[in-house]
């Protein structure tokens, strides 16, 4: 290990030289109160930035009682990353030169608190992973600027963020307790037979369509008395809010009154949020999956026969394959894939659903006879899916009162305030009976699929390219996977982790492990070894991975063009 003064000397020596001379600074340096590891040096000012790690020993002095559990370490790590990022903005404003010169970045995230690879709390030490754009003018090294960046600015950032004595301890403890209580609530609502909980006073509207920050001066959530639930939390005591019960729930109301806003808060309630987000007390079943029509998506060997059967041209819907799905077939596949992966809550918004998949009303049934209609609409399966598969459904529905026939609970949004409209809806159902027929010919079922090793066979024998383009695109070899319709994917670092997880999962795709088996194996690997286990060979210390839900991993796998499976045979156990 070299002293930090040696790093300064090297940077002075290479000042003005060709950019590749920056390779001379790779190594480990002692900065007295931390150790700097320069792991990777970018090849030119316009390439991906250089990757560094900082190690702080026991002098970080984080109290053992706030880092003793994995949940606590996740939220403390998240807090440190956010402070590190704030300190970059405070001290790291010496940008100048070519390309990414002077840019310091850490993967600090947005409104959600996620397990990340950028900060790791280990026995007796704290590790921070981040990137720096080493300064250059053209393609010549700005050694003196680099010396200032690494020798003066970086120590200030580390001092601000990596030592407990310098942090707002009250705020940190508040975040830890909030995270613990959110996880407690997520288990408690299951015990209470609820699928979601929204605390009184929550702020559900967002700042804009491109911002996840809470809307200022928004109407605060108020719980209708008949749906009110009070839960005693370990750290924040009793809290009261609206409980959405298991079964089939409709969210109704006029346009622009907050129906979709409530559903969006519920779908994001699978994640814990930072204090002040407004939705930090919106807690949802962690297996919830948002279902939508997704015209043009690929489908591989999915049994959608319970929804689509005997279509024209004798298309096999028991092992349905297509490179260009319609709205109805894509929505059917999304439901079955989610059930196959183990969801216990399906979420729908009529605005993003295929109308002919959701409902076929009485008049249309009379005009187009059942023998000419291959689609069994969701309305005729939704209660069966709940009873047989213990999977509830929440639907934003403003256009079809036929769903009153299958609803257990009806919540009406009026100027962003919820009302329990179940009684009124049931009275209307009785006063205005309909004569539509339930279009079901058989029991709802589907076959499990078993991924095959040749799913990624085309990439063997050469280095596999793994990359992302923003939050919604994975580059896997020569293939691009579009995740723009996977609405519960929140962070680019989650997308990158999914790309790595698909690569990691290859060795388990032996045609013997089911989709659900594959999920369990990947989850266990991450639990036991951390996110680093996903990194491909040669990518040590990944600095920008965030743990995705396994449902988004499966969604990406299902959209992989080369993904191959076999269905479970009838004689298999």
Q: Can you walk through the features of this model?
A:
The chain is an alpha+beta fold and about 575 residues long. Helix content is about 30%, strand content about 20%. The strands form nine sheets. Strands 1, 2, 3, 4, 5, 7 and 8 form a seven-stranded mixed beta sheet that branches. The chain has a six-stranded mixed beta sheet with strand order 19-22-23-16-24-25, sandwiched between helices. Strands 14-15-11-18 form a four-stranded antiparallel beta sheet, with helices on both faces. β12 and β13 (about 210-215) form a beta hairpin. The radius of gyration is 26 Å and the shape is globular.
Brief write-up:
The chain is of the alpha+beta class.
pLDDT averaged over residues = 93
Into which percent range does the helicity of residues fall?
25-40%
Distance between the termini: 58 Å
Beta content comes to 15-25%
Radius of gyration based on Cα positions: 26 Å
Largest sheet: 7 strands, mixed
> Spans with pLDDT under 50 lasting ≥5 residues?
569-573
Secondary structure class reads alpha+beta
Total beta-strand segments: 30
Q: Note the total helix count.
A: 13
């Amino acid at each position: 290990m070299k002293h930090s003064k040696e790093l300064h000397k090297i940077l002075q020596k290479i000042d003005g030289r060709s950019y590749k001379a920056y390779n001379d600074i790779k190594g480990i340096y002692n900065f007295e109160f931390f150790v700097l590891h320069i792991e990777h040096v970018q090849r030119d000012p316009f390439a991906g930035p250089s990757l560094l790690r900082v190690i702080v020993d026991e002098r970080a002095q984080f109290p053992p009682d706030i880092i003793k559990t994995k949940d606590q370490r996740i939220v403390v790590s998240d807090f440190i990353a956010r402070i590190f990022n704030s300190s970059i903005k405070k001290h790291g404003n010496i940008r100048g030169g070519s390309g990414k010169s002077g840019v310091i970045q850490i993967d600090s995230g947005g409104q959600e608190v996620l397990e990340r690879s950028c900060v790791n709390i280990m026995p007796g030490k704290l590790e921070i992973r981040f990137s720096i754009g080493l300064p250059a003018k053209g393609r010549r090294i700005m050694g003196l600027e680099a010396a200032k960046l690494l020798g003066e600015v970086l120590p200030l950032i580390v001092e601000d963020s990596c030592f407990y004595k310098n942090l707002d301890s009250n705020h940190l403890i508040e975040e830890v307790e909030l995270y613990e209580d959110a996880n407690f609530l997520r288990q408690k609502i299951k015990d209470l037979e609820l699928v979601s909980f929204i605390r009184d006073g929550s702020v559900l509207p967002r700042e804009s369509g491109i911002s996840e920050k809470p809307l200022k001066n928004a109407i605060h959530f108020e719980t209708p008395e008949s749906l009110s639930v009070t839960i005693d939390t370990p750290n924040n005591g009793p809290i009261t809010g609206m409980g959405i019960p298991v079964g089939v729930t409709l969210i109704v109301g006029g346009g622009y009154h907050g129906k979709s806003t409530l559903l969006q808060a519920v779908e994001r309630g699978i994640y814990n949020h930072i204090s002040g987000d407004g939705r930090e007390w919106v807690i949802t079943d962690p297996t919830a999956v948002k279902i939508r029509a997704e015209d043009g998506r690929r489908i591989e060997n999915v049994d959608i026969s319970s929804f689509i059967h005997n279509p024209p041209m004798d298309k096999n819907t028991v092992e349905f394959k297509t490179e260009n799905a319609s709205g109805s077939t894509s929505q059917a596949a999304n439901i079955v894939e989610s059930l196959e992966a183990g969801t216990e809550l399906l979420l729908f918004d009529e605005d993003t659903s295929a109308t002919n998949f959701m409902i076929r009303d009485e008049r249309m049934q009379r005009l187009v006879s059942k023998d000419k209609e291959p689609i069994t609409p969701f309305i005729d399966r939704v209660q069966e899916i709940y009873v047989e598969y213990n999977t509830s459904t929440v639907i934003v529905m403003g256009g079809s009162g036929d769903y009153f026939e299958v609803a257990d609970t009806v919540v009406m949004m009026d100027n962003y305030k919820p009302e329990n409209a179940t009684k009124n809806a049931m009275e209307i159902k009785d006063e205005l009976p309909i004569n539509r027929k339930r279009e079901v010919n058989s029991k709802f079922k589907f076959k499990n699929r078993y991924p095959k090793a040749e799913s990624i066979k085309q990439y063997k024998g050469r280095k596999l390219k793994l990359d992302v383009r923003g939050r919604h695109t994975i580059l896997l070899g020569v293939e691009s996977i579009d995740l723009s319709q996977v609405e519960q994917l929140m962070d680019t670092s989650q997308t990158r982790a999914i790309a790595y997880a698909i690569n990691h999962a290859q060795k388990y795709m032996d045609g013997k492990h089911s989709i659900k088996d594959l999920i369990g194996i990947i989850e266990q690997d991450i639990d036991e070894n951390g996110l680093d286990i996903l990194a491909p060979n040669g990518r040590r210390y990944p600095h920008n991975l965030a743990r995705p839900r396994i449902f988004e991993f499966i969604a990406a796998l299902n959209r992989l063009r080369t993904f191959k499976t076999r269905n479970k045979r009838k004689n298999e156990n």
